[in-house]
Write a structure and sequence with these properties.
Blueprint lengths: L2 E6 L5 E7 L3 E7 L6 H10 L14 H11 L1 E3 H10 L5 H9 L4 H6 L5 H13 L2 E3 L3 H10 L3 H7 L7
Antiparallel strand pairs: 1-2, 2-3, 4-5
Amino acid sequence: MEVRNAAYNAHGGIDCEVNHPSLGWVPFTASLSDTNAHGKALFTDLSVLATPYIGPVPDGPDAMLAALRDATTITRRALCIACRDAGLLTNTEAIAAARGDWPALVMTALDGLTDDQKADAQMEWSDVTTVRRTAPLILLLQDHLNYTDAQVDALFGIGGQG
């Protein structure tokens, strides 16, 4: 059987076109939950060949910027350097923070958290090698410092926002 244009869909199935003997190319969705053995077999055969599902593209500049922020990560080292360059950390504090030590700047931002939440945040910081722009700790620090989105974006190398 000839099959073309196999791609995963949003529901985990594989959309494709099947060359039917009398109808020609017809759309078909293969799924592991198909009640027909043929549909299950086709899904299994196509599972390594199908292109991945790509969700909808964000609409408009605000949605695109939000998606960019959510996707942006930098190394802990790069963030420490950016914080030092922005005057948030001294050289000594930046070096210690890059090693995974807890900067005093962060400790004051955690004042409203429980002891367990503070400990969890410290353990996470000491373990991460990359930091996501929209990580809860970054958002907490942004609020504590009264930083704008553009200021935090600059720390993560996202430029051109005003």
